[in-house]
Design a protein that fits this description.
By secondary structure, the chain is an alpha+beta fold. The chain has five helices and twelve strands. It starts with a strand and ends in a 12-residue tail after the last helix.
Length: about 300
């Protein structure tokens, strides 16, 4: 479901109950990578249950943190964005290592959101997710999803708008030319000990990493790592490498919680249909409000 107010698009997506919220000005700071690092240090070694193939059993319904509207640390912004810790575990300080030109572009995007930041300019782009568009890695840390494991594949089924990922684990190459660009990218999985590693290429760079315009280009290479920290928590780590936009690779690291354990909701282990496109008038609303369609970035030559 989508709520529009004062030019802000607020997503009320069927997820674990804790993720469905509008936040008052005195909302507590939402945890991110620093809190997860402290929690991880206190966890004892964990030997996960295994599938018949001998790999750790990641199957079930999972969800990321309830915030994520700005993946860098920030104070309270509005009803959709409470204060939050940074999602970045690297580099130290939790700031995205943009090249100077890219940082200027990101600031331009933020100033054009009509959300009240100092220096705000005319409306520019709305968050592409407003139009029911998803991408890796935002789909994994922002929403709820189900993992299914079968011989030779891991399947990730997202709550949001029927998105899914069919990830081969049989060692096949990517087999897609570099000129083919996809919203969810081209994923190949492998096991490194107890860690499921997903190598993602061929992303089209037309979505953002959050609601406030943090971005990468269609040159990005993404590597995700899923490891069970305990029976109900996945240690999720994703490294983004894009030499056209950033000065160095950088990493997000967060916990993904098993849905029922996170919410106490007896229906949390069920995946319910989220037909985002049906009755979605966001395209027309945003056109009337003066927002443009984001088509990715063009680095300077």
């Amino acid at each position: 479901m989508i709520a529009m107010a004062a030019g802000i698009t607020v997503w009320l997506t069927p997820m674990p109950a804790a993720s469905q919220a509008l936040y008052p000005r005195d909302a507590p700071k939402q945890p991110g990578a620093p809190s997860w690092a402290r929690e991880r240090m206190k966890l004892p070694p964990f030997n996960p249950l295994r599938t018949p193939e001998g790999t750790p059993d990641l199957q079930g319904r999972w969800g990321g943190p309830s915030g994520g509207d700005d993946i860098e640390e920030h104070p309270y912004v509005d009803v959709s964005s409470p204060p939050e810790e940074t999602y970045l575990s690297d580099p130290p300080g939790g700031k995205i290592p943009y090249q100077p030109w890219a940082l200027a572009v990101q600031a331009e995007y933020r100033a054009g959101l009509a959300r009240g930041w100092p220096g705000e300019k005319a409306r520019l782009y709305a968050d592409p997710q407003t139009f029911c568009l998803y991408s890796v890695p935002r789909a994994t840390y922002r929403g709820g999803f189900e993992i299914v494991q079968v011989p030779g594949y891991v399947v990730i089924l997202y709550n949001f708008s029927h998105y899914y990922r069919f990830i081969p684990t049989d060692g096949r190459p990517h087999e897609v030319g570099g000129n083919v660009k996809l919203w969810m990218g081209n994923s190949r999985g492998s096991w490194q000990g107890d860690t499921f590693v997903v190598d993602v290429t061929n992303l089209n760079g037309r979505n953002w990493l959050d609601q406030v315009g943090n971005f990468f280009s269609d040159n990005a290479h993404v590597v995700e790592r899923f490891r069970l920290a305990d029976a109900n928590t996945i240690d999720y780590e994703v490294t983004i490498d894009d030499s056209t936009v950033f000065t160095r690779p950088w990493t997000i690291r967060l916990p993904l919680r098993r849905a029922r354990a996170a919410s106490g909701d007896s229906y949390a282990d069920e995946t319910w249909e989220n037909a985002c496109h049906e009755g979605n008038e966001a395209t027309e609303h945003n056109r009337v409000l003066g927002f443009k369609w984001f088509r990715g970035v063009t680095p300077p030559k």
